[in-house]
């Protein structure tokens, strides 16, 4: 699969795509800033790390050993050197291709590599097979970042993704999410003497925001339920932006039912993602979605990697979970869920900017596709439950 993807990318030059400047809205007792361009996000993440006073919690699925990855490594090491507690987690499998020297860190940083194989002798324990797919940064008690961005130079300028910065009480939930994962894994992955990452609990609840977490080790997968609940109660619109769309049939049915009851359902996907097989399988759902009245918008020229949704201009989510089985029923994931009209409005505006860079797929165009495409979709259908 990777070979085919690399072949497809050969000689391709990155093309520009429309973005918006980061924008901040007040949500409850805190603020949420949305980012749609990697450089803006990374600048603010690095500034936050540089300004840390006490503690940095950094977790990423992919951490490329390129210039951008190096900037993060240097900033985290510098924070640790000046006495800030720096905790890092990265996924071992996702970074197998990263050169080993990059993955050597100064002893002042506490680093947990989530292992490629975590089941040990429990071969049949499915709770131990999820990847750590989360992307989190928390600085001191005041600032958190969460969203679709991994760390790497291509993501900085060539991919269209969405991330948010959060301040206020919701930061505590991000801290707790990081600490729970750390504590669940620290004993076997780090020195036995390593103490648990203890956190005080938040004294206030933020009613507008929930941090939803999939935790395979505990067999807890609320993100799929969160999406289904929101889609099933939609009365006006459901606008989804997804990098990889390989849902189960219940998810597809929820979208179709919404469209059939008159909800404006739009699905924004990459025209060509970085995973060709995922694209082919995803297309296998288009006929039934288009038939029900779902609009399929395909983002051109750049990889859209965001995992976001808005419903009825009120509910919204930004996170790490793709709409596929690996994310919704397999991996460690984290999504911010908010019920807030200002934030939902901002995400709707971002959606419309993205939509302006899309080709809309019509039923006629789709039904007229080549026979070999129809055959490929049918041939790959059995792979759906695996991705
Ligand atoms: O797994 P994601 O959604 O972070 O995407 C990562 C890229 O697809 C890696 O190829």
UniProtKB/TrEMBL annotation:
PROSITE patterns: PLD
A biological process from GO: cardiolipin biosynthetic process
Gene3D superfamilies: Endonuclease Chain A
Pfam families linked: PLDc_2
Membrane-traversing stretches: none
Organism domain of life: Bacteria
Gene Ontology terms, MF aspect: phosphatidyltransferase activity
Region (Disordered): 1-22
Record domain PLD phosphodiesterase: where: 128-155, 300-327
Coiled coil regions, renumbered to chain: none
SMART domains associated with the record: PLDc (SM00155)
The protein, known as: Phosphatidylserine/phosphatidylglycerophosphate/ cardiolipin synthase family protein
Native organism: Nocardioides antri
């Amino acid at each position: 699969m990777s070979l085919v993807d690399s072949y497809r990318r050969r000689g391709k030059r990155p093309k520009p795509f429309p973005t918006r400047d980061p924008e901040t809205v007040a949500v409850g007792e805190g603020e949420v800033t949305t980012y749609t361009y990697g450089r803006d996000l990374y600048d603010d993440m690095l500034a936050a790390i540089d300004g840390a006073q006490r503690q940095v919690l950094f977790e990423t699925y992919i951490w490329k050993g390129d210039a951008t990855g190096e900037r993060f490594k240097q900033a985290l090491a510098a924070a640790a050197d000046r006495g800030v507690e720096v905790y890092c987690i990265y996924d071992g499998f996702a970074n197998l291709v990263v050169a080993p020297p990059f993955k050597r860190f100064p002893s002042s940083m506490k680093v947990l590599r989530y292992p490629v194989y975590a089941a040990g002798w429990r071969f049949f324990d499915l709770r131990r097979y999820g990847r750590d797919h989360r992307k989190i940064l928390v600085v001191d008690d005041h600032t958190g970042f969460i969203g679709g961005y991994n760390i790497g130079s291509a993501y900085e300028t060539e991919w269209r993704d969405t991330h948010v910065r959060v301040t206020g009480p919701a930061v505590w939930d991000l801290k707790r999410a990081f600490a729970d994962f750390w504590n669940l894994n620290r004993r076997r992955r780090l020195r036995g003497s390593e103490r648990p990452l203890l956190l005080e609990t938040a004294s206030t609840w933020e009613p507008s925001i929930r941090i939803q977490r999939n935790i395979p080790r505990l067999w807890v997968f609320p993100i799929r339920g969160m999406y289904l609940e929101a889609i099933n109660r939609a009365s006006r619109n459901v606008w989804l932006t997804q990098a990889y769309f390989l849902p189960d049939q219940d998810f597809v049915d929820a979208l179709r039912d919404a469209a059939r009851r008159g909800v404006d359902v739009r699905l924004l996907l990459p025209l060509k993602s970085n995973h060709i097989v995922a694209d082919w399988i995803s297309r296998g759902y288009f006929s039934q979605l288009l038939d029900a009245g779902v609009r399929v918008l395909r983002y051109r020229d750049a990889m859209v990697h965001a995992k976001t949704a808005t419903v009825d201009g009120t509910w919204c989510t930004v996170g790490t979970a793709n709409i596929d089985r690996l994310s919704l029923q397999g991996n460690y994931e984290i999504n911010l869920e908010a019920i807030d009209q200002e934030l939902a409005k901002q995400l709707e505006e971002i959606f419309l900017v993205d939509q302006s860079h899309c080709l809309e797929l019509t039923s006629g165009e789709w039904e007229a596709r080549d026979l070999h495409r129809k055959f490929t979709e049918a041939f790959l259908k059995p792979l759906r439950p695996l991705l």
